[in-house]
Amino acid sequence: QVRLVESGGGLVQAGGSLRLSCAASGSFFRINAMGWHRQAPGKQRELVATVTSGGTTNYADSVKGRFTISSDNAKSTVYLQMNSLKPEDTAVYYCTSRTVRADRPVLEDYWGQGTQVTVSS
Prior knowledge:
Elements: E1 2-7, E2 10-13, E3 18-26, E4 30-39, E5 46-52, E6 57-59, E7 67-72, E8 77-82, E9 91-100, E10 107-111, E11 115-120
């Protein structure tokens, strides 16, 4: 089992910045990738950004140039630096991980509980 704990959400004015963090703990052999998804009220959950253990990143078009994902593999932690925030970025942000089990070579996906980000206009 893997536990993901997010922190860093909150209320910010449009144009402001926030930094989300997510730490993974528990029993696993390796983390292959971590990322962030978000879900706004009345909308489907969507991918925001991902980063692999090798450092390859992927972003949704809506956040490119404004958000930066990074990770600290030694700490099993992923970060999301969000700049130039817009009201449409308001959502619950979920941390995700794709890990290899400790007892056998099986990939598993995990989700955190989510952290609220609210951007006021």
